[in-house]
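Researcher: Go.
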Amino acid sequence: MARINLLPWREKERERRNKEFIIQMVIVTAIALICAALIWSFYNRQYASQQEANALITQANTALDRDLKEIEELESRQNEIIARMKVIEDLQGTRPIPVHVLDSLTRSVPANLYLTELERKDNILTIKGKADNPNTVTDLVRNIDSSGWMDSSKVVSIVNSGVTTQSTNPDEYVEPSPEDSYIFFEMNTNIVFPEVANPSATAEGASTNG
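Model: Structure:
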């Protein structure tokens, strides 16, 4: 004989399944929230670590910029000191030059010629004087260029003096001076510094003029 179940089993089964579904949804939601919390915590720690790293990099860059600025200041001071030392060395190196130039100039002056004015501007020496004729001035130019302390000499101008000796007494005869016929000359020459001076030329010029 067959049994017939007249109880509302379908409704109970539906309720049971609904409860299971709700429980599963709660579990899944809880797991998702936990995973989301873990992920958020992980990335939050990563972000905090990155922020700390960025702060350290910023501090390091600031310290590096400060060190670079100090290095630039030290390099600037070093360059200033080197420049001053160079000036001092140049002064010490060029200090004996005027003595050598004057000595060479004295040895280079030929007979029947004398100097009236010397003027130096930078490395250019202007020489003015009087000579008996232009050939004597040429000898002076040649002697100066062979001295080793001056070169590239050139005559700027040669002018007749036009000076005559006269007496206040018309009856008194005054013998004319040889210098009355001398010519005025002006010339320029370049002063040679030790780094470009030729010692052999200096010695040769000194021996020739001496």
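Model: Residues 11-95 form one domain.
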